[in-house]
Amino acid sequence: MKITLLVVGKTTDPRLASLIDEYRQRLTHYVPFDFVVLPDLKNAKSLTEEQVKTAEGEAILRFLTPAMEVILLDEHGREFRSVEYADWLQKKMGAGRDLTLVIGGPYGFSKPVYDRADGKLSLSQMTFSHQMIRIMAIEQLYRAMTILRHEPYHHE
Fold first, then answer.
1. I want to staple 34 with a disulfide (CB 3.0 to 4.6 A). Which of 4, 120, 136, 155 is the partner?
2. Considering its fold, how many domains does the chain have in total?
């Protein structure tokens, strides 16, 4: 099984990009992992929120394949404690399908993306920037892997 984190738009803060790279490298010791960045929309400022969601949604859907299990990072998604997330992830890994976690743009997802999704996951009830949530998602994947291997990264 491979895990992919699919994001819309590049990471503009070099400090966050550095952290993403660090945790991406750590994570690849446990599981095949891809960090895929869909390009920013051109002329997005001249589009309505709905047009932006539609265009981003089309780009997301072009990337996805029928074989992927697609989980949207969404404020209305299921929340886990880290140990519960590790257990959930282990079950997903046991199912054998490639897992794709998707972080959308600032306006969220279009209806066709929601329709394609196999589930929704929330990392917090609080709101974070789409730049910050990337590192949080990768770090939680890494944390889950260390929990599953009984390594001393997570303390409870």
1. 4
2. 1
Task: Assess contact for 113 and 72: CB atoms under 8 A.
Answer: yes
Return the number of other C-beta atoms located less than 10 Å from residue 71's C-beta.
19
Question: Tokens standing for 33?
Answer: 């992992």
Q: What's the CA gap between 109 and 91, in Å, rounded?
A: 26
* CATH number of the domain to which 119 belongs: 3.40.1280.10
Tens-binned pLDDT, residue by residue, of the chain (156 aa): 999 999 999 999 999 999 999 999 999 999 999 999 999 888 878 888 999 999 999 999 999 999 999 999 999 999 999 999 999 999 999 998 999 999 998 899 999 999 999 999 999 988 888 889 999 999 999 999 999 999 998 887
In a domain, 156, yes or no: no
The answer as to whether 154 is a domain residue is no
Amino acid type, 66: P
